[in-house]
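Exercise: predict the fold of this chain.
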Amino acid sequence: MSAATLHDDDTIDTPPMQTTKARRIAVASGKGGVGKTWFASTLAHNWAIKGRRTLLFDGDLGLANVDVQLGLSPETDLSEVIAGRARIEDAIHRNVAENLDVIAGSSGTAALAALPAARLDRLIADLDLVDDGYDRVVLDLGAGVDNTVRSLAATADTILVVTTAEPTALTDAYAFIKLMVLRDPKVDLRVVVNQAASTKEGEAVFQTLFKACQKFLKFSLPLAGIVRIDRRVSETIRNQSLIMTRHPTAEAAQDVEKIARSLRRAFD
């Protein structure tokens, strides 16, 4: 891949000089089933193919599925790291795609779902160790608002909260946002409305959440972007592939590209 890549807006995206600390982005949601893991994987892949050295970290401890969605069979995952049987570097699945590495979680391991504070602190410290080799680290967090999710989210520079139009998704997204704002009123939280029937519907969904945050939290919540419903998303998941490779011109792929491009400009 060349050092510079042309976007569809005819701008040159030149990778920055490697810094000592990666920009860390957490992808969270109040509830499951909103497409959080697909979005995190697609966002990470987009940055990777645009020249950013990117690590995708499956932080959905106990119910991890990044490896399943991407068709990976890692020999070492986070359960081995947390148990002290492997270093975090050993859990990196390298070159999943150009410039994209993955640290897989472990599904069905109850002990990971509620880590003791000391082990969680050690995992966060381990993650800090691998930051230096990347421009971006994307954390795919578990659904919900438990302490593990909130603690991992708090390590990020930016938190993207994924929601849909479903009332339960909005309610749970608000609960997550509330807890993070109470923890740090200056937190960089942004919303992604996924599976929107149209851009107009996505904007209406965002406004519902925005107004609630302003009224009850006095917090102005920015919109990171809207991803429209696209049948090719489910197809790529079934085929354990990445939509930016399989269907790069799909509406959902272009929507994620727009979000990624906006964040690149904000970060670099």
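Check your answer against the key: The domain at 20-267 is CATH 3.40.50.300 (Rossmann fold).
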